[in-house]
Amino acid sequence: MKIIYSSKFAKEYKKLPLRIKISAEKKEKIFKKDPFDPSLKTHKLTGKLKEYYSFSIDYQYRIIFEIVKKDVVWFHSVGTHTIYK
Prior knowledge:
It contains two helices and five strands; from the N terminus they run βααββββ. The protein has helices at about 5-15, 20-35; strands at about 1-5, 45, 55, 60-70, 70-80. A five-stranded mixed β-sheet has the order 1-5-4-3-2. The mean pLDDT is about 95.
């Protein structure tokens, strides 16, 4: 699976606490094997973000992504629940 990182994602990722970055890297490895692994709690979003999905890094932090093709996803945003706004 190929992951494309948006410039917004890159900026937000740089600002994350180190422990969240480490957790995000572990979750990304799981994501590459199976984007819908139960441990990620992947779900389709609703409302204005209905074209996107989200998965959990931990209880507070999430990654919003879009499925572009079968083996290509685009990571759009990372952060707490405020990224949904």
